[in-house]
Amino acid sequence: MIAELEDHLKRSFNQEKLNLIGKLIGEGWTKDVLRFSANVTQYREQVNCHIWAQFGEVRTELAQFSFEEFPWNGDVLVSGNVYVSKHYQGYGIGKLLNAERIEVAKASGASAIICTVLEANIPERKVLFANNWRNLGRFKSGYSNTLVEFWLKELK
Amino acid sequence: MQYYTFPTSCAIQILGNFGCRPEANADDLRIAHRLTMVVIGVENENTWKEAFAKMGLKKIGTFNKAHSGGERLSLWVAGSDFKLEPQAPIKESK
């Protein structure tokens, strides 16, 4: 999936020399990776996945996401901290990144991913809908006074 | 019974470690209702559905447990603020 994302960006930015760099960042450690799904499985703590785009000497952060095991039930992963840098928004990266998250979760042996998303976050809700996540319901958070939705992706 | 704050929203508490008598946790659950917006748990559907229903939890989703030969897991929620409404339309705000 990273290779697909790389090709997608090369076409979008007309930059043949673009390379993607992946890093897994846990508590007190960092690891360079080429594919997230091959590496994230061995960690049971929260893992943050960062992707940078390298154009020649210039490296900029492209996107990030994180996973955390659902407490008391390793069959479920909680996805969060999903972010695409402003410079790269609008190029379909969110959808590809979501597909990468699904592959990572599948490779880890999980049965499902759950996440929360603000109802006002239209781009992320569109991505979840496009990748066949299920909207389970919503509630008004008394902390932030915002509507929050629950989404689930079953990993078949 | 134990609680854990949901990683991406402090308005949600995850509950687990029910022990062998889930109905004994009803008082704890009522307290959790008052402190937070939503309480959720994930458990085997067949083992826990009656106990969770007695505790006032609602089932909001079910999925297959991977590599298990058909075992089902369910996501349960408690909280009067939680609405099982059809998905709100995804529209760009003007």
Task: Provide tags for this entry.
heterodimer; A: 156 residues; alpha+beta; Aminopeptidase; 8-stranded mixed β-sheet; 3 helices; globular; B: 94 residues; 5-stranded mixed β-sheet; 21% helix
Helices and strands, with pairings:
The complex is a heterodimer of chains A (156) and B (94).
Chain A: H1 2-13, E1 18-26, E2 29-33, E3 47-55, E4 58-69, E5 76-84, H2 93-107, E6 112-118, H3 122-130, E7 134-140, E8 147-154
Parallel strand pairs in A: 5-6
Antiparallel strand pairs in A: 1-2, 1-3, 3-4, 4-5, 6-8, 7-8
Helix pairs in contact in A: 1-2
Chain B: E1 2-5, E2 12-16, H1 26-35, E3 38-44, H2 45-54, E4 58-64, E5 72-78
Parallel strand pairs in B: 2-3
Antiparallel strand pairs in B: 1-2, 3-5, 4-5
Relative strand content of chain A? 35-45%
Would you state the CATH class of chain B? Alpha Beta
Name given to the CATH architecture of chain B: 3-Layer(aba) Sandwich
For the largest interface in this structure, which chains are involved and how many residues does each contribute? A-B, 44 and 39 residues
Count of all domains of chain B: 1
- What gross morphology of chain B would you assign? globular
Q: What's the end-to-end separation of chain B, in Å?
A: 46 Å
Number-wise, the strands of chain A total: 8
Question: Main β-sheet of chain A: number of strands, strand sense, barrel status?
Answer: 8 strands, mixed
Q: What percent of residues of chain A adopt helix (DSSP H or I)? A: 10-25%
Order of neighbouring strands in the sheet with most strands of chain B: 1-2-3-5-4
H/E element string of chain A?
A: HEEEEEHEHEE
CA-based gyration radius of chain A: 16 Å
As a percent range, the share of strand residues of chain B is: 25-35%
Q: Assembly state here?
A: heterodimer
How many helix segments of chain B?
2
